[in-house]
Amino acid sequence: MLTIKLPDGKNLFFDKKVTGFEVSEKISKSLSKQALVMSINGELKDLSETIENDCSIKIFTNKDKEGLETIRHDTAHILAMAVQELFPGTQVTIGPVIEYGFYYDFSRKEPFTNEDLAQIENRMKEIVDRNEITKKEVWERSKAISHFKKKGEIYKAEIIESIPKEEQVSIYFHGKWNDLCRGPHLPSTGKVGKFFKLTKVSGAYWRGDSNNEMLQRIYGTGWSTQKDLDNYLKRIEEAEKRDHRKLGKEMDLFHFREESPGSVFWHEKGWNLFQKLIDYMRTKQKKAGYKEINTPEILDRTLWEKSGHWEKFGEHMYTSTTPDEKVFAIKPMNCPGCVQVFNQGLKSYRDLPLRMSEFGKVHRYEPSGALHGLLRVRAFTQDDAHIFCTEDQITNECLSVTNLILGIYKDLGFTNVLLQFSDRPEKRVGDDKIWDKAESALLKAIKQSKLKYEINKGEGAFYGPKIDFVLRDSIGRDWQCGTLQVDLNLPGRLGALFVDKDGSKKVPVMLHRALFGSLERFIGILIENYAGKLPFWLTPLQAMIIPVSDEFDDYAKQVYKKINEIGINCEIDLKNHNLNYKIREHSMSKVPLLLICGKKEVDSNTITIRRLDFKKQETMELNTFLKKFSALNKAPSF
RNA sequence: GCCCCUGUAGCUCAGCUGGUAGAGCAAUUGAUUUGUAAUCAAUAGGUCCGCGGUUCGAAUCCGUGCGGGGGCACCA
User: Which SS3 state, helix, strand or coil, does residue A404 take?
Assistant: First the structure.
C-alpha cells in the first residue's frame, strides 16, 4: 500500500508502485494532459519516475515556475540537438536555464552566423513536432566517460569526471540524441511548445575562466505561451527605445569619439544636467554637515605605493612621466588625496566626525570590452566623500549617510531601493574585534533604515565591510549606485592621526561613501528611467518660446527675458518655420513646455502653454506662469 | 583583454556578384507670415574609419590597426 499526499492535503492510495503520470491521471484527466514535471517531497523529478515509498507529490504545469523552468531547460536540450543535427562534429558543453530563457555553450571551429541561428530555430521547431520521447538512464561513471570520449565530446567527459563520487550520472535521451544531464525533463519534446526564440550568439569562456578556450554561446528566450513570448520581446524593444546612448544623441546631451574611448564629450544641455545634479547635491550635503574639498588629479607614484593602489590596481591606472622622469598617476580614486587633506594640520577629536566631500574626476583604464555608453566609462566624476570619525561614531554616521542617500534617491524618483550588506572576506586587514564593531555598526544602521536588505557573505572589501545601494528603475532593472564602506586600513597606511581627549594620538576610522557612484553613470540611468523625459527641475532646456509668426517676435523676446530671469532655462525659436513644424520638432526633442505667442497672447499679456505629451493647451497670464513654474523648478524636498 | 558582428554626408540609412557614391532629415539661401506633430524650391555637403595588399581598376575582396555593438572575462 502506497500513500501519496497531494498539495491540497488529500491522500491518494495505490496498491503498487506508480509513476508520476499515473498519479496525475488519477487526479484528473486535464491535469495529466498539462503535467510537465513533479516534485517528490519537494525534489523536482521526471513524471516518468517510479514512486516506491509514501511521499507528498506536487504536479507542475506550464503555469508554475517549475514548469516554465523545465520548459526552458528542455528547450536548451533541443537547441543542442538541433545544432548537432545540423553541424555534426560540434561539441556540447553546458546549457542552463537563465532569467528569461536559456543558453547552450558549444565548441566548434566555425562561428555560428545569424543565418545559422534562423536555421537552428527552424530545426528546433521540427524537433518539437517530432515529439521525441524522453528517457532517463543512470550509467556507470566509467561507461559514461568512455561513451562521451568515443563521441569526441571531451568537455562532457570532463564534466562527468568532476561530478562528486556520491552523485549518480544520468543520461537523458530525447529519441536517439542523448546528453549528460541532472534533469528533470519533460516527457517528450512536443511538450515544450514553440514559444521560444534564439536571440544572440556570443563568446563565453569554458567554465567562466578567461584562461580557457572560448566557446560559442547561443542565447534563447523561452515561455509557456505565445503571449508571454510577445510580451517579453516587446519589453526588450521598449528598453532599446530608452537606450541612453540613443537618447543622448537625439537630445543633444553628449557624444563619444575615437580620440578618447570611454570618455564623455558633454554638450551644453548634458553639462547643464550634470551641473544641476551637482548643485542639488552640494545643497543637500551642506545641510548634512559636509565640507567640500578638491584634490589634484595627478599625484606622485609614491603616494599610490603607500596607499596600496599601485600594487593592487596598477593595471587600471593611467600614468604619466614628466620630462624630469618622475612618474605620476592620474587618480583612479579620491581617497588618498582626501586623507592628505586630513593630514594637513593637526586634528583633534573635537574635529570628528569630519565629513569631506569631493566631486572628484577619476580615470580608470577599463578593459575595452567593458565600455558601455555612460554606464561604464574610463573617466568619471564621483560624488565622493570621506568621513573621519571614531569607532563609536560609526553607527550614527552610517545612519545619516543612509538617510541622505535615500532622500536623494526619492527626490530623483527612485523609491524602490535595496541594500546589500557585505561582510568580512577571507583576505582582510585589521583584527576581528574591529571587524565585529564595524559590521555591527553598519548592520544597526541598516536595520534602523527599515529597508529591504540582502547579505552578501564574505563580499566586503579587504579593508572593511560595506553597504551597496541598489535602486530599481521604472522598467524593473536594478542598478548598483551608492556605496558606504568602512575602512580600517587606509588611514593607518597614510598616517592619519587625531589627538584624543587624553592627549594621545589615534588613527581615525574612515568611511568612504558615494551617493550616485558616478555622475556620468547616474545620468545614463536617469535618462533610461525617464525615457528621456526628465523631471522638470532637471530638464536642461525647460521651455521653448514659439512666436506664431515673426510679427510676434518682439513679444516673444520680452517673455523670454522674464522667464530667464527666474532661472528657467528657455529659448526662442525665431526660425522661419510654421507653427506645426516647430511643435513637432521641439516635442520630439522632449522640451517639456512649449510657449506659444500670437496675436491673442500679445493682446492679453498671456502665453499659451503646450506641455509635452498633453494635447490640450492652456492659456495663462505671464505672471501666473512665472509664479507657478518657478515653484516647480526645484527638487521636491527643497 | 577574448569571441562574433560592424564602421558610407551632421543624423538615419541605401549602394547586388569589384568600374572612384546616393536618399530622407538636418544645414545654407530664397519664397511663404503661418494658431498646435513635417510649407515649397534651390544650393552646398563625402580621405566611403586609418594603413598596407590583390587588381588595369577597391566603399565593395584580403591583411592589419583603431572605433562602435552584443556577449564572456573584468568592475578595485
Answer: helix
pTM of the shown model: 0.93
Residue A269 CA and nucleotide B60 C1' are separated, in Å, by 40
Closest nucleotide to A110 by C1' from CA = B4
Q: Any idea what the Cα angle at residue A412 is, between residues A410 and A416, rounded to 5°?
A: 45
Taking only the tens place, the pLDDT of each residue in A458-477 is: 888 888 899 999 999 988 88
Reading the block at residue A591, the C-alpha cell is 522640451
Q: Which domains can be identified in chain A, with CATH numbers?
A: 2-60 (3.10.20.30), 70-239 (3.30.980.10), 254-529 (3.30.930.10), 543-632 (3.40.50.800)
- A288 near A392, Cβ under 8 Å? no
**Distance of C1' in B38 from CA in A585, Å:** 8
How far apart are alpha carbons A347 and A339 in whole angstroms?
Answer: 12
Instruction: Report whether A96 contacts A102 (CB < 8 A).
Output: yes
As annotated, the active-site residues of A are 335, 364, 382, 384, 386, 466, 512
Task: Decide: residue A323, CB within 10 A, 0-12 exposed, 13-18 middle, 19+ buried.
Answer: exposed
Q: Which nt sits closest to A461, CA to C1'?
A: B76
Q: Which chain B positions come under 7 Å from a protein C-beta?
A: 1-5, 7, 11-12, 26-27, 30-39, 66-76
Q: Which residue has the closest alpha carbon to B37 C1'?
A: A584
Grid cell 505565445 — which residue?
A226
DSSP string, A162-197: HS-TTS-EEEEEETTEEEE------SBGGGG-S-EE
Q: How many of the other CB atoms lie within 10 Å of CB of A430?
A: 17
In tens, the pLDDT along A19-48 reads 999 999 989 999 999 999 999 999 999 999
CA dist., res. A128 & res. A27, Å (int):
27
